[in-house]
Amino acid sequence: MTPYRPVSLLIAPYGxxxxxxxxxxxxxxxxxxxxxxLPSVQLSERSVCDLELLAxxxxxxxxxxxxQADHQHxxxxxxxxxxxxxxxxxxxxxxxxAALHLDCDIALRDAKNDLLAVMTLEEIYAWDLTEVxxxxxxxxxxxxxxxxxxxxxGKRYISGRLQVLQLPKHYDFQxxxxxxxxxxxxxxxxxxxxxxxxHTRHPLHRVHEELTKRAAQEVDGVLLLHPVVGMTKPxxxxxxxxxxxxxxxxAGYYDPKRVLLALLPLAMRLAGPRxxxxxxxxxxxxxxxxVIIGRDHASPGEDATGQPFYGPYDAQALxxxxxxxxxxxxxxxxxxxxxxxxxxxxxxxxxPSGARxxxxxxxxxxxxxxxxxxxxxxxxTRPEVAEILAETYPPRYRQGVCIWFxxxxxxxxxxxxxxLTVLLLEYGRQVTLLDGDVVRTHLSxxxxxxxxxxxxxIRRIGFVAVEIVRHGGIAICAAVSPYRATRNDIRNLVGAxxxxxxxxxTPLEVCETRDTKGMYAKAxxxxxxAFTGIDDPYEPPAQPEVTLDTxxxxxxxxxxxxxxxxxxxxxxxxSNFATIGSVG
Length: 584
Ligand code: ADP
Ligand code: ADP
Prior knowledge:
Elements: H1 25-35, E1 40-42, H2 45-56, H3 68-77, E2 93-94, E3 105-109, E4 115-120, E5 123-126, H4 129-137, H5 145-150, E6 156-159, E7 162-164, H6 180-190, E8 195-198, H7 206-218, E9 222-225, H8 239-253, E10 259-261, H9 272-285, E11 290-293, H10 314-326, E12 329-332, E13 336-339, E14 344-347, H11 362-369, H12 383-392, E15 401-406, H13 413-426, E16 431-435, H14 436-439, H15 451-470, E17 474-478, H16 484-494, E18 499-504, H17 508-514, H18 519-524, E19 546-548, H19 555-568, H20 574-577
Helix pairs in contact: 8-12, 9-10, 13-19, 15-16
Bound molecules: adenosine-5'-diphosphate (ADP) (2 copies).
């Protein structure tokens, strides 16, 4: 006799049932033991996300990485070979060097080599990047984050039946990590048939709160706040901040009987309209029958010519077209503005004539508020969210920066760096001085002056500097660092906005006259080989942020010059700098 199961209030998953690829508990040990004998494929971060969503049924009815026929259909027509909608390809790329052959089983592992699943290899096929990018994404432009990523993918796709042993491990926000089945159970308990899903990669402001509340009201249902925590656009706010903001808002500002916050471990493709349709399908599998889609949904930004990749309303239009077939209605994102005199938000179409309105652009938020350490106003962002954003985006004067001195031995790098260190401490910043000579006595002990060893030395200093900057400190590095390419690598690692290259431009004759350590004399006598400037090259920076003249300026004057530069760029607070004497 089948057990009694009440009919669900919620919309059924797409295709009728939720795919579940998890190996039953009692069979796991046996599959695991077998897996230890199998050849392994290590999955990328993206494929790990895809596997998690396949395993839990978020991509239902799809239950495996696509084979060639499905893949071709999806690229051409946004449909699986069964005719069901599936707007984006879901392949598993591998390197052709992987020694794989058909009809064998392989173990799928994550970056740490943890075993996730066993795949029975049924297909290995070549794919054409140009065709896929052009048809599925509508572009070959390398500014599209997925196009550039696809150039690094393996040249073969593989497909086959999946047996999943464990979901990827997540240690963050565990209470909010709900599978489609768990999400459905929670929604069911809230007692509404209608569920409207919403996600944005951006921090949540009052306007999002307003429009999501209106949408839930409009459909007389529950709001599913469903932020993406897999992969988004590389420059987006990190997912910790994103989720903290969602949590703060969900906890404090919604009726708990009308809202559910669940995380979506999706790896976005930033495919605009096709992605909007895909999100609708995924949200449906989690139990939503409505979705809020705004302007520029899943937009990858602008192409090489400065044009947007997709039109602002293309996503809404495509979803509208397939809405009935997919069973998910679109709730269009109404543009809302704030009416300060009435202290409320209103649809732009319904603003009384002559009413005052208020809004802030993303640039204003960054430049006029966060970078300057000013709190966002409460009409724009709830105070709890404003505080989270202030923590993630501290003002410039609390952000990290790397000051990289370069120049010949004896040029005056260490001497100037020491003065600058003291001045910065005086003005309230945390500083670590990484001096080449000193670093070579511990972190780089044993390294010589071959090109390879010098590069290793610089990269070690760079590694430490990156960490210091990431944590909001100032790293002052003073090493000859003779090679331009290596210095540029460090600049990229730190981030160009936080890297200040200081060229201590002292002529060789002057350094040689100073010869405080007697090294030049030795080098001239041939007792030291490969000495920079004598018989080893020094490549001056092409565009240093600051150039110092140590012949006509004292170390103190030069240190003040750098301090002045830091102040102008916001890294030292103006109010502090006002008390500093004039620069010589
Ligand atoms: P580096 O770190 O570039 O090898 P140092 O700072 O260790 O160089 O040595 C520079 C030497 O030059 C010191 O002895 C310092 O006193 C002397 N010197 C003379 N004038 C200056 C100046 N204007 N700036 C920096 N150092 C100077
Ligand atoms: P790099 O950036 O080339 O690794 P460091 O600043 O770490 O250089 O070390 C350079 C210091 O080491 C010089 O100031 C000098 O005192 C000493 N030194 C010893 N041999 C050499 C050499 N062959 N070339 C340059 N500096 C040398």
